[in-house]
C-alpha cells in the first residue's frame, strides 16, 4: 500500500490537470483486483499554492457522511505546514454543493454512539477551518443545505453563483439544525438566521450576500475565474503574515473590545518582528516589490 501511495504522489496529476499535484492517501485496490475500500468521497489537488478540495459524491448530493467528513479533514490537513500551500478552495461536484448530513447514518439503527461520532467529527472539521494557517474559500455553485450551509458559513470567504441557494431545513424532518446554527448564527443577523432555522426555507445567493453568509455572488460562468482571482491575490501576500493575522482575527472576535485591542496590539508588534513584516515595510519605503521568505522567522535585531 505504501508503494502504491508513493506511485500516486509521483504521478503528480489528477484528471489530466497539468502541473497539479494529486493528493493521494493510499492504494484503492487489493492485489486480486477487488476494491480494497470505498472510493474516497472527496478529492484534492494542488498547483501554484492553491489546493482544491472537492466534495465528489454527487450521487449522494455530496452528503457530509462520516466518511466524507474524515476525507475532507484528511485533504485539508495533508502537508498543511508546507510553505507551498497558500490558500484552500472547497467546492462540490454536481448541482448540489452539499445536502448536509447523510440521514441514513442518523437512523435509530446506527445508534447513539455513532450519532455522537458523526456530530463530533463534523464539529471538529468546522472548527478546524478557522484554525488552519491559510485562508479557506468556499466556491458554491448550487444548493447548500443544513451541514452543507454550515460548511459555507465556517469558511473564511465564500463565493457563490447566482443560482446558489442556502437553507437549514432540518426542522422539516424533525431534526433542528442546531449545529449548523453555530456558524450560521455567527454569520447572519439573529432574526435572519432564526427565520431560516424555524421555517427551513432557502435564501437566494443575493440574500446570502446581503446578510453576510457569502462574500461575493457572480454568474455561474464566472464563478471559477472570480474564485481563482481571489485565491491568486491571497498568494501574493506572505503566508506567515496571513497566518498570524487570521489567528488574531478569530481570537479577538471572541473577546470584548478592550481585550481585543490589547490582543491585536500585541499581535501587530509581533508582526513587525517577523522577517516578512520587516521586509514588507522596507520594500514599501524603497518603492519595490517585497520578497517574502514565507518562513515565519523573526527578523534580525
From TrEMBL:
Record bears the keyword Kinase: no
Known role: May play a role in fatty acid biosynthesis and insulin sensitivity.
Keyword Transit peptide (UniProt): yes
Lineage: Eukaryota, Metazoa, Chordata, Craniata, Vertebrata
Subcellular location: Mitochondrion
GO cellular component terms listed in the entry, alphabetical order: mitochondrion
Pfam family, one: ECH_1
One record GO biological process: fatty acid metabolic process
Chief location category: mitochondrion
Similarity comment: Belongs to the enoyl-CoA hydratase/isomerase family.
InterPro entries: ClpP/crotonase-like_dom_sf, Enoyl-CoA_hydra/iso, Enoyl-CoA_hydra_C, Mitochondrial_ECH-domain
Keywords for the protein's UniProt record, in alphabetical order: Fatty acid metabolism, Lipid metabolism, Mitochondrion, Transit peptide
Protein name (Swiss-Prot/TrEMBL): Enoyl-CoA hydratase domain-containing protein 3, mitochondrial
Single GO MF descriptor: hydro-lyase activity
Amino acid at each position: 500500500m505504501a508503494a502504491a501511495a508513493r506511485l500516486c504522489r509521483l504521478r503528480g496529476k489528477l484528471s489530466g490537470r497539468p502541473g497539479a499535484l494529486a493528493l493521494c492517501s493510499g492504494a484503492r485496490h487489493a492485489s486480486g483486483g477487488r476494491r480494497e475500500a470505498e472510493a474516497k468521497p472527496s478529492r484534492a489537488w494542488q498547483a501554484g499554492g492553491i489546493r482544491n478540495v472537492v466534495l465528489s459524491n454527487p450521487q449522494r448530493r455530496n452528503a457530509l457522511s462520516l466518511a466524507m467528513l474524515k476525507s475532507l479533514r484528511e485533504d485539508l490537513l495533508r502537508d498543511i505546514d508546507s510553505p507551498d500551500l497558500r490558500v484552500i478552495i472547497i467546492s462540490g461536484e454536481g448541482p448540489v454543493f452539499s445536502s448536509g448530513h447523510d440521514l441514513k447514518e442518523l437512523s435509530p439503527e446506527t445508534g447513539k454512539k455513532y450519532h455522537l461520532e458523526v456530530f463530533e467529527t463534523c464539529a471538529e472539521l468546522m472548527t478546524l477551518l478557522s484554525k488552519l494557517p491559510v485562508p479557506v474559500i468556499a466556491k458554491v455553485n448550487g444548493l447548500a443545505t443544513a451541514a452543507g450551509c454550515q460548511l459555507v458559513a465556517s469558511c473564511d470567504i465564500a463565493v457563490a453563483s447566482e443560482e446558489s441557494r442556502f437553507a437549514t431545513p432540518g426542522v422539516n424532518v424533525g431534526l433542528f439544525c442546531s449545529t449548523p446554527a453555530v456558524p450560521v448564527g455567527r454569520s447572519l443577523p439573529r432574526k435572519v438566521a432564526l427565520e431560516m432555522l424555524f421555517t427551513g426555507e432557502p435564501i437566494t445567493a443575493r440574500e446570502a450576500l446581503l446578510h453576510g453568509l457569502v462574500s461575493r455572488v457572480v454568474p455561474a460562468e464566472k464563478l471559477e475565474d472570480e474564485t481563482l482571482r481571489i485565491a491568486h491575490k491571497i498568494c501574493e501576500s506572505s503566508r506567515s503574515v496571513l497566518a498570524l493575522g487570521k489567528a488574531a482575527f478569530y481570537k479577538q472576535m471572541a473577546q470584548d473590545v478592550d481585550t481585543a485591542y490589547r490582543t491585536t496590539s500585541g499581535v501587530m508588534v509581533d508582526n513587525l518582528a517577523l522577517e516578512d513584516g520587516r521586509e514588507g515595510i522596507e520594500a514599501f519605503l524603497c518603492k519595490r516589490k517585497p520578497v517574502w521568505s514565507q518562513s515565519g522567522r523573526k527578523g534580525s535585531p
